[in-house]
Amino acid sequence: MSSSDVLLSRLISKRTGPCRWICKCPSHEDRTASLSVRELDDGRLLIHCFAGCNPNEVLSAIGLTMHDLFPERLIGAFGKPEKRPFPATDVLQAIAFEAQIVAIVAIDLSKTHAVSNEIKDRLTLAAARIQAGLTAAGINHG
Predict the structure, then answer these.
(1) DSSP of 94-129, one letter per residue?
(2) Residue 57: its pLDDT value, please?
(3) Residue 81: which residues within 8 A CB-CB, separation 6 or more?
(4) What is the per-residue burial (b if ≥16 Cβ within 10 Å, else e) of 65-85?
(5) Residue 63 near residue 97 (C-beta atoms within 8 A)
(6) CA 132 to CA 142: how far, in whole Å?
(7) What are 8-21's pLDDT values in tens digits?
(8) Which of 25, 65, 88, 112 is the one with CA 20 to 30 A from 5?
(9) What is the band of 74 on the pLDDT scale with cuts at 50, 70, 90?
(10) 35 or 94, which is more confident
(11) Sign of CA dihedral 131, 31, 23, 104
């Protein structure tokens, strides 16, 4: 069984392209898929939670370790670092829900000119997740 088979067998995932998946993150209550998984040509797996969970938290939640993201032949070897490990399409799919939150709050503001503290907190979280997604995709957002 490959590293990706082991990882994906423990996640709720949807294929988004060749060797790419978007999944519900197991380390937090995830209503929409926020975990991106990508398998590189050499078998290494890259994971990123756009909600902010670190890889160790994600893997621990499903009983795996960082060691499980690398094929045996690469343990101890150094691969070429990825400049853009997560394609922009995966990032956009992962943060689409957050963009909807921002749009809803903008509409509410235009009508009422006021929002609750709870809504302000949720808007701040959405903005942070969008920024994290752009950063993970290597998109310069100034």
Answers:
(1) HHHHHHHHHHHHHHHHHHHS---HHHHHHHHHHHHH
(2) 92
(3) none
(4) eeeebbbeeeeeeeeeeeeeb
(5) no
(6) 13
(7) 889 988 999 899 99
(8) 88
(9) very low
(10) 35
(11) negative
